[in-house]
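Morning. Coffee machine broken again, so started the prediction first thing and wrote up yesterday's gels while waiting. Chain of 437 residues, entered below exactly as on the submission form.
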Amino acid sequence: MSLTAREPIVQLENAILDLLRHPAPFVPNPPECTKRASTVLIIRVRPSFEQQATSTFVQQKHGFCPSELSERLENVRRFFENDWVKNGDPEILFIKRAARAGDRWSGHVALPGGGKESQDASDLAAGVRETLEEVGIDLTETACYAGNLAERVVTSTWGNHVLMVLCPFVCLLMTPGPVELRPQPSEVASIQWVPLRALLSPERRTKELINISDRIAKDRNWFSRAVLRSTLGKMTFSAVRLLPSESLHCSSIDGFLPPDRSQIPIKEAIRLVLTGHEALSLQPTEQPLQLWGLTLGMVADFLDIFPPGNNSVKLWAYPTFTNPDLRFILWLVTFSLRRVNAKDALANGGREKLSAVDDSTATLAVHDLSEKRESQNSVGISGLGLGRPNHTRLVSTMLDGYFARMHWAIALWLALRTIFGTAMIALLFKRLKRRPR
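Came back before lunch.
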């Protein structure tokens, strides 16, 4: 059942106040990794048609991010007291990253953000700077700080090494009018405002199909990758198909217009199709906007604060394969593990904490191990560590151990295929020998 515009406003105010009262703890870097990155989930409220002319900017009484909790709460409460806010439609800003060679998140739907640099005083400062650089919004002038989400240790899916600590923040735009957006051509292909109702709608939930042959056999030639793709199939990930209310495309980037198909050599066209890049011939405006992977994990964390029925477990399912044989073997190999992980997750006050994952990276949920066993700011090598202060039981992430089992499933599947293929060849050879000449 779809929500009216008024319902998300009430839920949004309660969610932001809850975030401010229960901030996610700081997660230090593991010994083998020094990189930190920040993203910002930017929320605006679009006034109704009747109130657009009378809506006014809500001044930050205590500045962008006051040090006192009471002042942060007052900023938010003053904002939601406005009539145009009460009758408005909340929206979240997403970007589609520009296509860049060597970038593991090239072309993905994401939140504004990037790596922390030496001039950044804090993780939040890094997110504010990156937002200004990527989309042109100065949050210190137009928004108020609305809390942070659980920090995550990002690891490689297939290599199992730590890449960074990811720090998601939430900011609330105080202006009713349109904010000037300036997408940075080298990093941003387009910017979208997506209504919160569309994210909460079950009808928008779908799957993202990813060709992983390039990841597994990246050092092989294109023919080997095509053969691997035809046998493994694709991986499927939970996704939400976005329905923007407003979009801005960066028309100056390469690839804004599709290439002239008549100019593509036949050999290159065949290679693109065999390696799963047929979508490259579409214009950016024609490609579906799919929210999945790391960004879906952060958005799911935010939606998990909303009332029961809108929590993140409905946006998420275990990654699997399109190949039916491999999918069955993976289901069988991970059956007991998934039951144990689900039981551990449900022990966390009835709320499931999910790890985000895509075809090349995963984020480990950080949960409280125990006040007796570890200090509040420690992170275990297994990825278990800190959660929000009001959820303090020991839990395992839903993906804990899943990819190790996936490796076993692929190896078992390849072995069975090899045995079956060898047996069929031997049987065929035997029958051919018995045929009368």
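Residues 278-282, 349-355, 365-396 have pLDDT under 50 and may be disordered. Going to sketch it on the whiteboard this afternoon.
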